[in-house]
Structures are given as C-alpha cells and as structure tokens.
Design brief:
This protein is of the alpha/beta class. It has helices spanning about 5-10, 65-75, 100-110, 110-130, 140-150, 175-180, 195-205, 235-255, 265-270, and strands at about 30-35, 40-45, 50-55, 80-85, 135-140, 160-165, 185-190, 215-220.
Amino acid sequence: NRRDMTDACCAAGTTVYEGPSINPDHVPQGAETQLGDFKAYMAGNPGDTCLIVGYDIFGFEVPNTRANCDLLAAAGNMAVCMPDFFKGATASSIPELTGASIVEFVTNHGTYNMMKQALAEHVLPSLKADGFSKFLWVGFCWGGKMALEMAADPDLNQEFLAAGGIHAALKEDAPELAGKVQIPCMFLQAANDEDLRPVFIALSRDEELREMHVLRTYYDQMHGWCSARGDRSNPRVVAAIKSALQTTLDFFAQVRMQLVEELPQQIQED
C-alpha cells in the first residue's frame, strides 16, 4: 500500500526548532512587508527575479524557514519572498498531529485554490508593481506540494520559470500531476516521503523538459529536515540542509542560464 502524504508529516512530530540558522551567529537579513492582504518576509536584493517560498505547515514565524530565505537570497543574488499564505495560522496549534488533523488544517488554511488566489490577486501583482518580472518557487512540505500543483496548472505555471519542493507533501495523484507539468521541476525528498520514481517516470515523458528536472531522495533524512523540524545542532542534518539548498540554487541557476555563487562561506563553515 502507498503511504498517505500525512504519514511522513505525522512521523516528523510537532517539534519546531528555534535555532535561527545553520550559523549560530546568523542575524535575520529580511524584513516583513505587505503584499496586498498578505504579510510576507522579504530578503535579498531588488532586481527582476524573485524566488517565492512556500513554507511548511508550521507557517510564517519559523526561524529555520526564514533562515533558508536569507541563505537563498544571499547566495542566489535575487530577492526571496515568503508570503504568509495561512494568515497567521500554524500547525503548532493542533493538539495532536494526525492525518485527519493535518487534512483539516490544510482544508481550512491552505488548499491549492487558496494559495492560487493569494498569488494571483495579491502576491504577484504586488511584486510586479515593485519591478519583479521573473518568478521561481520553492516550497517545504506543504509548499512543496503546491510546487507540483502549480507546475501542472496552465493558469499559473506561465508565471513561473521553475518550481521546486523539499520534502514535499506529495499525494497519490503526484504522477498524474507530473504528467501535466509544463515547467522545470525539482523535488528533494526524505526517506519516509512518497516514492519519487513514479513522478520521475511521468516527468521524463516530456523530452523537452526531461533534462532540466532534478529529483533526489535523501535516504539519511526524515520528512521535515530542511525547515521547521530540522535539528540544526545535528551535523548530519546540517550537511543535508546545505546540500539541499545548494542543489536548489544550482537548479535555478540552470533555469536562469547564469552562474550562481556557492553558499556563503560562513554557512559552509558552521
């Protein structure tokens, strides 16, 4: 039997690590701003390219996820924007993390249509008004699930150069969605996430995009390692985070057809 997408999420537990970064001396580089009706965490330099980050079910305030925004912005030479799609809601408020409770939370705060509407009516128009014209997406857990859905949605994928997910909460319909993808995709999964092989097979049918997709499984990591539930005092977890973020940068560099610097030196050392 195939695993339900919520199994890995439940197994990862509800511990949200408060350590601010891979680097203990990290100081947040971004600031909160308003994009229409949605708050957003913005980091990086103004330009024409903006990487939009979809967080995990623990939401907007998570130090690890904000640190990821800072690191990607600094190394990727682009702006990074993490909108608060859940409008303050967080799975930390769920008394017991079960499959049913996760589904209820997402139904109330983060369906694909909710995210799509937020992007179309608030986030993208605001960013375009600020001068951005090229958009990328990377998401963790919930945000990774959104990556595949948007990449398969002709109403939305035309707005993005590429989309990626890290320990994405993929469901049984992932191969079907992958067969409809129209932009380059990246998925970096954990050992207990949904098997990527059917998704790889479906993505590979598009000869034009086949060579641009990146799909990898981190068999020494569990779901959640790169965002809220990753213990950044654990050297093995830190190594996997560095690898995932660098792979993300390399993937977007390929798409953007330009070189991107390695992750900042202090991140490699800490």
